[in-house]
Every structure is written in C-alpha cells, then in structure tokens.
Amino acid sequence: xxxxQRVFRVGKAEAHATIDxxxxxxxxxxxxxxxxxxxLNSAMTALAEVKGQGxxxxxxxxxxxxxxxxxxxxxxxxxxxxxxxxLDSGESDRLAGEALSRKEDAAKRAATLTGDAKQQETTAAQxxxxxxxxxxxxxxxxxxxxxxxxxxxxxxxxxxxxxQLSKVDSNGTLAMLERMKERVEEDESxxxxxxxxxxxxxxxxxxxxxxxxxxxxGSDQLAELKAKMGMS
Length: 232
What we know:
Blueprint: H1 2-8, H2 13-22, H3 25-83, H4 89-166, H5 170-229
Helix pairs in contact: 1-3, 3-4
C-alpha cells in the first residue's frame, strides 16, 4: 500500500537526513495519517457493505431452505389426500411432482446462497483484518507524531540557543572586562593619590597650629600651677 510506504519512511533512520532537507517531517507525518484515515473510512464502508451482503445471503439461503422443506411437506399432504380418496391419484402425482420440483429448486438456491454467503464472510474477515491493521497503524503514528512534535520543539529551542551562543565573542568580552578592570584600578589609584595629596597639603598648617596650641596651653597651665604653689 502506497500510504504505508510514505509513512514508514518517516520512521526510518536512513531517510531522516533527506526529510530534514527537503520536507517537514511533522507535516509529512500528519499527511500520512490523514491518508491512512481516508483508507480506513473506505475500508470500513467496504466492510459494512460486504457484511451486509453476507447477512442478506444467509437470510435468503435460510428462507429457501425453509421453502424446500415446505414444498416437501406439501407434496406429502397431496399424496395423503390421494391415499385417503379425497384426490385423484393422477392429479395428486402431478401436484406432488410440481411441489417436489419446486423443493429441488429452492434447495439448490439455498445451497448457492449459502456458498455465496460464505464467500462474502471470507471477504469480510479479510477486510476486518485490514481495518484492524489500519487502526493500529493510525494509533502508532499518532503517538509517534506527539513525540515528533515534542522533539521538534526541543530541537528548535536548542538550535536557537546554540545559534545565539555561537555569536558570543568570548575573547572580545574578556578583553573588554580586562580593560574595564584596568580602568577601575587606575581610577582607584588616582583617587588614593589625590587623597594623599590632600592630606599632605593640610599637614604643615595643622602641625604649626598644633604646636602653637600645645605651647600656649602648656604655659597657661604652668603659670596657674606656680601661682597655686606661691612660686613667682
């Protein structure tokens, strides 16, 4: 079956490379499943028709078999009429013969219809096997399609991430960080130097003021102590 060949190649490792290059595997699988479902519908219709025909043939065969039995009973009743004197023997033989002839025809039709019914039932069994096969194939490929879609999404996401990572210039980024580090270190060194310069510019005046303040404070304290002790 052509549809099986189209869908089967999706699952073959040898065909993956070709499919990836020239066809969308998901769309291809979806189309294959749609084709399978069309085949399934056709097979189901044919199966119903064949089964229906077989049922009709069985019913007709049964009716003809019953008719054959009825004609045989009628022939016996006609002969009994003649035996009882209610019917002329010649007439009874004619009627009984006609009844038996129709019985024979009905029996032949019943046999023919029974054979036709068996043939239809054999065909129906073959179609049923085909229908079961199609149902199983559809279920399998629908499950595979779910997995294929998930894999496709994962592959697309991974491809996108890898593509972005491939554009990252690690060497350039590292060089930029190193330049930034050097600049920060330079700024820190300059800040420290300016701090030292600020301290050095104020230290001379501070030392002078400290000396003057310390001596003045010492003289006053010494005078107070001498006065307290009565010293000149």
